[in-house]
Design brief:
Chain lengths: 109, 109
DNA sequence: TTCCACTACATAGTATCACCGGGTAGCGAA
DNA sequence: TTCGCTACCCGGTGATACTATGTAGTGGAA
């Protein structure tokens, strides 16, 4: 992954994962797969798990342990009310930043 | 500044500053002021100076010392060829990320 | 003169975050 | 048994923005 992308993901990857959980609950391995599907092909697995630990500790998600047919039990994360608010705040922040950056891109030419 | 914004700026602030320099050369204090004008009202002065040191060391900008009528001499930064390429790469990375995030925002509803 | 406000640059220390490399464990197929 | 896939976890690293503070030069007010 390019260094630029790595740095740019800081702060946004969290929102991306929460947005995925907003659609429907999912477990870590699944989230990683979904990220890859959506174009984030180089997100490291370890990164996702670390992120999930953080959002769980901050109380943004609820966790349920579900046995799996294949491999160890899954930890299924779902966005709770607090997480929903946090996600909305994320979108506001993103909008703010994106608008200003787009503006800069225009002004540059 | 919100923590979300702080984290989201990581990786993007650099591109923002380079984009400002792409329009015309500027010195640190001036860049800080321009950022505030453009809505980034809470960027700390020290953050900008630290960033300028980094981009200078990476050879993305040229520097000229210019005496000021008021206060100490200014260090005027201008984007060079290498910085121009880097900025283009930044825009590509930004576009990629922004598109995927917008897509998520749609899919969420 | 003395003091303050504004301009202008600089830096040491802190927190956060994504990545790297590796590890643990359960299950089914060759 | 061994391999491959599923699934989770962790310690250490590098990069970045922020906080708080300091240094200097200039000009105007008290």
């Amino acid at each position: 992954m390019s260094k630029q992308m790595t740095e740019m993901l800081k702060g946004t990857l969290e929102g991306v994962v929460l947005a995925i959980l907003a659609v429907q609950p999912a477990y870590g391995y699944e989230i990683t797969a979904r990220l890859r599907e959506q174009g984030f092909s180089d997100i490291a697995e370890g990164t996702v798990y670390a992120l999930l630990v953080r959002v769980e500790q901050r109380g943004l998600v609820d966790v349920a342990k579900v046995p799996s047919e294949k491999g160890p039990p899954r930890k299924v994360y779902s966005l709770n009310a607090s997480g929903g608010e946090y996600l909305e705040e994320f979108w506001r922040t993103w909008r703010f930043l994106a608008e200003r950056i787009e503006q800069l891109h225009q002004g540059e030419k």
